[in-house]
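Need a sequence for this fold. Nothing fancy.
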């Protein structure tokens, strides 16, 4: 094993950029496509709908598979996304049927950054800073005004992960990796006052100030070159344990607890020709295991108040995600790519009332992307993602205690992004 080499000026600049990205991420609304997870990390992977567990292309690959660090050489990357959603909620079969626009903040900017260094021919280190999706809605006209709410309504959940990573090549072509996820999240809820009467702590339910919470978790990964043409990847990410939101201990189950769910998946990449690669991933997100996310509203009428250990949440189910991508090397300078992502809708049709403030109903996403590489080692990548509008029609979703009827949720998204990378 070679002696450890201190990172040079470029690496030190990247570490500074990563810290800057972390500060920006802490203040920037995040976007949600795979439930409230981002559809991918790094512009190259995002151009293939987030596929790439077995096909790492830049240092943000560590955000899903830490074993990728051994396959990336020495490099850094910084990127920025521009995110524009459309979100609406509509009441149907009620005394006051109408639709509401949840996009008071129509455009968001989301940065990310990463760095990888090869310590030896077997050992690599890295770090990635990125947003883990999120839920941000802003209804200037409050849908819950019919129940007595005043002012605007919405929630702001933003999560930042910083993942120091170590990876080790234990056999030719086969590596294992470990990331420690150091996480922070912020939350605010507004305009939900009518539901506070069903809480064990009504004073800490809605219209509190933004609150921060910190947490931690682990991510394990494997990357293997099985044949000259086939590579495989796998990862498992633990539930990220956060501090409770004390200001919202009357809203979330278990006295304000809101952890990030565990997730795991498998991936494959196949070299069809020297220029053409096909990539496929499967992932599962275990939303139902986080009580604040997975517990249905029905518990409210079985004696479980908001904020209690078994208090109601958003009623989300676990979601399976399929990602398919293709990458084509035009020449030494240009690569082009495309992708498709299909995500299970995590929201059941009878849980749409509370999910007016978290309408993550998108199921299909389409992407295009490209990378331009210079002899100096500079890479510029860009991508675009479009998620067509998806509507979830409620079915028995408004309890009789709130007048009956249904709430329908609709959402679409457009995202464009660019990243700059440097291989050295």
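Here you go.
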């Amino acid at each position: 094993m070679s002696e450890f080499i201190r990172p040079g000026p470029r690496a030190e600049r990247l570490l500074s950029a990563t810290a800057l990205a972390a500060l920006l991420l802490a203040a920037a609304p995040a976007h949600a496509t795979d439930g409230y997870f981002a559809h991918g990390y790094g512009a190259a992977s995002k151009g293939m709908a987030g596929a790439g567990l077995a096909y790492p292309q830049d240092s943000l690959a560590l955000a899903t598979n830490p074993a990728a660090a051994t396959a990336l050489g020495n490099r850094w990357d910084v990127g920025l996304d521009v995110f524009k959603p459309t979100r609406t909620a509509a009441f149907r079969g009620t005394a006051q049927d109408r639709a509401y626009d949840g996009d008071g903040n129509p455009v968001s900017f989301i940065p990310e950054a990463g760095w990888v260094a090869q310590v030896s021919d077997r050992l690599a280190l890295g770090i990635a800073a990125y947003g883990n999706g999120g839920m941000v809605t802003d209804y200037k006209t409050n849908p819950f005004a019919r129940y007595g709410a005043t002012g605007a309504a919405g929630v702001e959940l933003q999560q930042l992960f910083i993942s120091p990573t170590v990876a080790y090549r234990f056999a030719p072509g086969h590596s294992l990796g470990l990331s420690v996820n150091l996480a922070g999240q912020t939350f605010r809820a507004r305009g939900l006052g009518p539901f506070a009467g069903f809480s064990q702590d009504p004073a800490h339910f809605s219209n509190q100030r933004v609150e921060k919470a910190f947490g931690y978790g682990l991510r394990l990964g494997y990357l293997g070159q099985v044949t000259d043409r086939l590579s495989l990847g796998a990862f498992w990410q633990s539930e990220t344990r956060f501090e409770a939101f004390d200001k919202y201990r009357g809203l979330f189950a278990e006295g304000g607890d809101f952890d990030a769910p565990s997730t795991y998946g498998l991936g494959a990449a196949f070299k069809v020709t020297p220029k053409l690669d096909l990539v496929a991933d499967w992932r599962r997100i275990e939303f139902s295991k986080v009580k604040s996310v997975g517990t249905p509203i029905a518990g409210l009428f079985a004696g479980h108040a908001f904020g209690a250990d078994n208090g109601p949440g958003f009623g989300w189910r676990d979601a399976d995600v399929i990602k398919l991508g293709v990458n084509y090397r035009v020449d030494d300078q240009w690569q082009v790519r495309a992708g498709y992502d299909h995500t299970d809708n995590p929201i059941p049709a009878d849980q749409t009332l509370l999910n007016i403030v978290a309408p993550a109903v998108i199921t299909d996403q389409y992407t295009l992307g490209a990378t331009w590489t210079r002899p100096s080692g500079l890479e510029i990548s860009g991508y675009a993602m479009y998620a067509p509008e998806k509507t979830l029609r409620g079915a028995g979703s408004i309890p009789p205690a709130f007048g009956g009827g249904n709430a329908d949720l609709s959402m679409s998204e457009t995202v464009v992004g660019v990243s700059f990378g440097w291989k050295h």
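For context: Confidence is low (pLDDT under 50) at residues 1-29.
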